[in-house]
Design a protein that fits this description.
about 10% helix, about 150 residues, 6-stranded antiparallel sheet, 1 helix, Jelly Rolls
């Protein structure tokens, strides 16, 4: 009996690997989670996976970012609007040039957020890993610190 169960489980695993083989690749491309390539940031706070396009070039792109617990960004801007879906965890966001972790607001999984081009914001994770999916038009860049305002005279 155990042998029969093992054979059935093996067949199920083989079939799972092969499940997309009958789809026309010109019509649908499926990338299972195990095949998504994550790249860690230099500071180790985040990992990024490019799902579509190239964010450093003109055109539409989609990336996913994993924020490790306790990690976050400082106030910054982006050159273009960005559209963000919270995939898992609770993402924390704040606005303005003055970073204040205590005033950040929770954004639960399933939420949709728009980062408006040129507007100052900061974000990150508190107690749990957070995954967000970001879409927009490139080229985009690493977060930019807010521009300093000239003194009014």
């Amino acid at each position: 009996m155990r042998y029969a169960i093992a054979v059935l489980m093996f067949c199920g695993l083989v079939h799972a690997e092969d499940v997309y083989a009958s789809l026309d690749a010109k019509t649908i491309t499926v990338t299972p989670p195990k095949d998504i390539k994550w790249v860690d940031s230099a500071n180790g706070q985040t990992s990024t996976a490019v799902l579509y396009g190239d964010p450093s070039k003109p055109g539409y792109y989609i990336i996913q970012m994993k924020w490790r617990p306790g990690s976050g960004s400082r106030p910054h801007t982006h050159p273009n609007d960005r559209y963000v879906n919270v995939v898992s965890g609770t993402w924390w966001v704040g606005t303005g040039k003055d970073y204040n972790k205590d005033t950040m607001k929770p954004v639960p999984a399933g939420s949709f957020v728009v980062h408006t081009a040129g507007e100052v914001h900061y974000d990150g994770a508190k107690d749990e890993e957070v995954i967000v999916q970001i879409q927009g038009m490139g080229p985009t860049s690493a977060p930019r610190p807010p521009a300093k305002q000239a003194d009014a005279k």
